[in-house]
Amino acid sequence: MRKDLVVVGAGPAGIAAALKAREKGVKDILLVERAERLGGILNQCVHDGFGLELFKTALTGPEYAQSYIDRLEKEKIPYLLNATVTSLTPGKTLTIVSPQGLLEVSAKAVILATGCRERTREMIHIPGTRPAGVYTAGCAQNLINILGVLPGRSVVILGSGDIGLIMARRLTLEGARVLAVVEILPYASGLRRNIVQCLEDYNIPLFLSHTVVDVKGSKRLEGVTIAQVDDPFKPIAGTEKEFVCDTLLLSVGLIPENELAEKAGVEMDSVTAGPSVNEFNETTVPGIYAAGNTLQVHDLVDWATLEAENAGEQAADYIHGGVSGKRRFRISTGHGVRQAVPQYYSGEHDVLLSLRVSVPFRGKTLAVRAGEAVIKKMSYAELNPAEMQRVKLSKDEVKGTRGLSVSIEDG
After folding, report:
1. Burial class of residue 93 in the structure, from the number of CB atoms within 10 Å of its CB (0-12 exposed, 13-18 middle, 19+ buried)
2. What mean pLDDT is predicted for residues 364-380?
């Protein structure tokens, strides 16, 4: 089978990328989704807050997804469900296991929009027994919102990521008692609005600089022990607190799904765990693009959608004979900046930088430099790792530069 464009993943990013490519004149598109329905993770996100940027109103996850699914159906863009891409070559040949059988598809361009998976207990080495009742926050969200099953009655949540915060509220509304949210860092990992709306409004305590040091129970979880940690994140003896509970939820980070990108020989960013891309969302392999949470974990689905639309537009240009982004200059991170996407730029187009700081800052300036020359400076009252910063650099600002650096400075 031959296709002009194959989009892997039919969540909000994948659907948006396919729609934008169709809008730009790509007729032969195939959308591949391993789940049994379109929409991705939004299907289980029944809370509102989606669409504030793009639709100027608060939608639930399914409402946001359905608005794009309706457009996809209207455009008659074909898609495969229950289909898994098992390999991707640098030549853009995909192997797909589907209900139709084993397919081999050769594409002119590929957009990866495969999203994230959650970190599990085994990845963070929680000591103790291995009873039932320990779930990732996303798994518990699926149990409640999709399957209608309450995973427990008395809950401790480890990690203050947005999914964990939202599940603290959801469990409370469903009649469970959330005893505590425990965060190993000295600051919360989720958005400030979720701290307020999901914890403070429901009087759920947040323990910063704490972690779970023991899990008790044989067949079913019976309790957990938490303790305060020091600067190297080692538990401090004598600070232990015991909680009697039947459920422990883990909200300890997301990992972009990028096995396909790695198989295709794409350069990966060790910090974001996603592909390295230029301002066109093109990876280091010409004709392979990445967008959404597979590229970097986003705060807002609206931003993931806009990023995917850029990938769809640029993939369409590539399919129609446009020049691949061969001229690549590096964007590096300096003091206080943990990650910056894109990692490369051509120097001939606008660049939209997505940044995260490494620790909270107050009253600092974010500076973009080309050597010693300042390209742009922006002052902030506060900067938090949980909140992505977006900085637009015009083509006039980056023209003639041969590399950029981004850092936090005084003044």
Report:
1. middle
2. 95
H-helix segments, 339-409? 395-398
Q: What secondary structure letter does DSSP report for 94?
A: E
Measured distance CA(274)–CA(291) in Å, rounded? 9
- CATH fold, domain 328-411, is Immunoglobulin-like (2.60.40)
CATH 3.50.50.60 fits 1-117+253-326, yes or no: yes
Q: What pLDDT was estimated at residue 154?
A: 98
Q: Judging by DSSP bridges, how do beta strands 29-32 and 79-80 pair with one another?
A: parallel
H/E stretch holding 411: none
Q: At what angle do helices 301-319 and 12-23 cross, to 10 degrees?
A: 40
Strands 134-136 and 247-250 come out as parallel
The CA distance from 267 to 90, in Å, is 12
Backbone angles phi, psi at 212, to 5 degrees: -80, 125
Region(s) of the chain under CATH 3.50.50.60: 1-117+253-326, 120-252
Q: Note whether 249 and 140 are within 8 A (CB).
A: yes
Domain 120-252 fold: FAD/NAD(P)-binding domain (3.50.50)
pTM (global) more than 0.85 = yes
